[in-house]
């Protein structure tokens, strides 16, 4: 595995690979890698000649109340995880390398951001889309890999690739789960013992809603009510949101049809957990 820190060297390396006819799988991250990232890297390894991992804590996607400086970083650990996962190139640029001067142009995301987690984080996805635009031009990947744990981000990236005509295949990788169904997250360690026992209720509620829809339920309000009732019955967490939208458009529906997402967020004492499922509904 080689480690590259400059844009110029990275682009030269990628151009060489493309000239050789090699396919490039790209996993963009902010580092502090966990099992979810490793799953993305393994998928990229299976499907491409070259696997590229970027580690860059992007200041543009941090809001005024979010501490960029406190975001966890451990590049030595990340390098080892990357090597073990079969990464060929680790792109690890400094902030001054990615943003050497104030931006004269920035990407503004117009759709798919005013709902779910994006509702409380204005400007966050503008920062995500801007850095991904830069990274896509630097890495020139054949395929880019994102986890469905953050389905809203996947929807935004889908729009970015389509609208700007990037010649990139978006690969959405299913959420990695514990044996009891809880979506894997670095936040899970902040759950108390009792909360950890309750947390699988999130995925159980989603599966219960899917089963009801498969049995003919088509009213989004009834689906939300079913999930809320399950969460209130089986957890002491505070419901942040329960939403049902079209996917990836993230538009409200009067009646369920086509591809949909059911997404939830629940606040426990020291952790806010999110989860979702997407599937097709027959009209």
Shape: globular
CATH topology of the largest domain: Rossmann fold
Arrangement of strands in the largest sheet? 1-4-3-2-5-6
How many helical stretches?
Answer: 9
The CATH superfamily title of the largest domain:
HUPs
Give the helix/strand class.
alpha/beta
Indicate the CATH class of the largest domain.
Alpha Beta
**Residues in β-strands, percent:** 15-25%
Q: What's the short story on this structure?
A:
The chain is of the alpha/beta class and 283 residues long.
Describe the protein:
The protein has 283 residues and is α/β, with parallel strands linked by helices. It has 2 domains: 2-173, 3-Layer(aba) Sandwich (Rossmann fold); 186-275, 2-Layer Sandwich (Pantoate--beta-alanine Ligase, Chain: A,domain 2), CATH 3.30.1300. The protein has helices spanning 7-19, 35-47, 75-84, 95-98, 124-139, 151-163, 193-198, 201-214, 220-234; strands spanning 2-4, 24-29, 50-55, 89-91, 143-147, 169-173, 238-246, 258-267, 272-281. It is globular. The mean pLDDT is 96.
Question: Keywords for this structure?
Answer:
alpha/beta, Pantoate_ligase_C, six-stranded parallel beta sheet, Pantoate--beta-alanine Ligase, Chain: A,domain 2, cytoplasm, pantoate-beta-alanine ligase activity, EC 6.3.2.1, three-stranded antiparallel beta sheet, globular, Rossmann fold, ligase, 9 helices, 283 residues
């Amino acid at each position: 595995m080689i480690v590259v820190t400059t844009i110029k060297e990275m682009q030269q390396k990628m151009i060489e690979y493309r000239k050789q006819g090699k396919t490039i799988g790209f996993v963009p991250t902010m580092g502090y890698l966990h099992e979810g990232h490793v799953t993305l890297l393994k998928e990229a390894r299976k499907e491409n000649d070259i696997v590229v991992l970027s580690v860059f804590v992007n200041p543009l996607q941090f809001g005024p109340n979010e501490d960029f400086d406190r975001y966890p970083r451990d590049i030595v650990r990340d390098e080892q995880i990357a090597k073990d996962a079969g990464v060929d190139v680790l792109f690890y640029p400094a902030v001054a390398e990615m943003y050497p001067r104030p931006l004269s142009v920035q990407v503004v995301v117009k759709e798919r951001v005013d709902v779910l987690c994006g509702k409380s984080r204005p400007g966050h996805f503008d920062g995500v889309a801007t850095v991904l635009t830069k990274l896509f031009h630097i890495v020139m990947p054949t395929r880019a890999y994102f986890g469905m744990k953050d389905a809203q981000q996947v929807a935004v990236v889908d729009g970015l690739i389509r609208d700007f005509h990037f010649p990139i295949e978006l690969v959405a990788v299913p959420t990695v789960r514990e044996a009891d169904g809880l979506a894997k997250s670095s936040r899970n360690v902040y759950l108390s013992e009792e909360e950890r026992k309750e947390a699988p209720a999130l995925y159980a509620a989603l599966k219960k809603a899917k089963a009801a829809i498969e049995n003919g339920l088509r009213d989004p309000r009834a689906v939300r009510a079913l999930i809320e009732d399950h969460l209130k019955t089986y957890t002491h967490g505070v419901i942040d949101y329960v939403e049902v939208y079209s996917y990836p458009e993230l538009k409200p529906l009067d009646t369920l049809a086509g591809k949909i997402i059911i997404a939830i967020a629940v606040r426990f004492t020291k952790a806010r957990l999110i989860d979702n499922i997407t599937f097709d509904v027959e009209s």
